[in-house]
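Design request, tokens follow.
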């Protein structure tokens, strides 16, 4: 009697395993035969029996993505990332799905995770991911990173109206989800600025400047058109031409803080005295902008006014507590003021942070280099 019970129990335990093996094999066969609806149903049945089957979640998710069922695909890839949190491709697909269903913040997190973890070497997939990541960065106002990714695509030879429009909105600091209608004045400015930015990314500077000159002549009052032009001219190495554009932007918008910051940064070590009024205006307009204090401190220090530089550099520490160059400047200012102990502490902090940044091979610059 006990033997019969044991045999029945063993059969009961093996039956789900046999069902899973059968269902998973049928699901894979249906997928390979391009019977996607049937395959999706079979994968769901198999996963109900074996919810930790990572390959099943991947196959189900890709089928759902390919059939534009993005919400369901997102759920499948969420299951997969929970099982395999270091799977860059799973994060990539989850990010793409969330992009399609409007979950921009989460989509950006997963696409950035995919980049950090690594993805398939397929160049087309990499271009798709970079473009979608750039769009999300543009929408969230992270313009510098978006510009870098889009110009990287341009440098690699990927050009399209979509890239032009996204890069144009990025340079013009627009967070809209869709570009202006093509053929309208707004659409012409956005696509034109973006195309010029793409040409700059490809080092085709003269072609880019021809476009910028035409746009600035035709649409001189368009918001941020001179600011965007100044950014691109900085990339070409034409600093004074860029400063002229930033000044024109300030004429259009007297409260334009970013244009003043760019002028102050551009003038550092070139004509620091000329940059001081712009940094002072930033600090006066908004004392909470740490970069304004930092730039003003650098400019004052470069012109020998170390007594005024010290409080400005100190005020920027809250915004940039781990910026090595800030402590180097503070060390120099303290030394000039005869504050030897403060200078020694600042220089020790500089050495530590500089070593940490070199080890990490990161450390984003916050201001102009020397």
């Amino acid at each position: 009697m006990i033997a019969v019970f044991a045999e029945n129990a063993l059969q009961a335990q093996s039956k789900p395993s046999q069902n899973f093996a059968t269902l998973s094999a049928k699901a894979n066969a249906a997928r390979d035969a391009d019977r996607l609806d049937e395959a999706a149903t079979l994968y769901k049945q198999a996963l109900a029996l074996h919810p930790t089957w990572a390959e099943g979640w991947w196959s189900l998710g890709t089928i759902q993505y390919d059939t534009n069922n993005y919400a369901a695909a997102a759920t499948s890839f969420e299951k997969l990332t929970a099982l395999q949190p270091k799977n860059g491709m799973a994060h990539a697909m989850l990010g793409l799905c969330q992009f399609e269903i409007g979950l921009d913040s989460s989509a950006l997190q997963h696409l950035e995770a995919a980049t950090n973890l690594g993805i398939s070497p397929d160049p087309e997939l990499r271009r798709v991911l970079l473009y979608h990541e750039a769009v999300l960065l543009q929408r969230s106002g992270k313009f510098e990173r978006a510009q870098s990714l889009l110009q990287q695509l341009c440098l690699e030879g990927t050009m399209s109206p979509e890239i032009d429009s996204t890069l144009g909105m990025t340079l013009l600091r627009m967070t809209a989800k869709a570009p202006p209608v093509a053929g309208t004045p707004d659409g012409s400015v956005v696509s034109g600025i973006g195309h010029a930015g793409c040409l700059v990314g490809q080092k085709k500077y003269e072609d880019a400047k021809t476009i910028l000159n035409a746009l600035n002549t035709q649409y001189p009052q368009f918001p941020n058109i001179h600011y965007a032009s100044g950014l691109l001219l900085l990339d070409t190495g034409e600093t004074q031409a860029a400063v002229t554009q930033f000044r024109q932007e300030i004429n259009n918008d007297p409260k334009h803080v970013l244009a003043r910051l760019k002028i102050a940064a551009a003038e550092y070590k070139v004509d620091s005295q000329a940059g001081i009024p712009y940094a002072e205006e930033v600090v006066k307009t908004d004392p909470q902008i740490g970069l304004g204090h930092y730039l003003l401190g650098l400019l004052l220090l470069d012109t020998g006014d170390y007594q005024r530089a010290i409080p400005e550099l100190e005020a920027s520490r809250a915004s940039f507590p781990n910026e090595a160059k800030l402590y180097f400047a503070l060390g120099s200012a303290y030394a000039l003021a005869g504050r030897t102990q403060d200078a020694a502490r600042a220089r020790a902090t500089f050495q530590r942070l500089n070593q940490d940044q070199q080890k990490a091979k990161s450390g984003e610059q916050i201001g102009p280099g020397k």
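Comment from the thread starter after seeing the answer: thanks! Confidence is low (pLDDT under 50) at residues 1-15.
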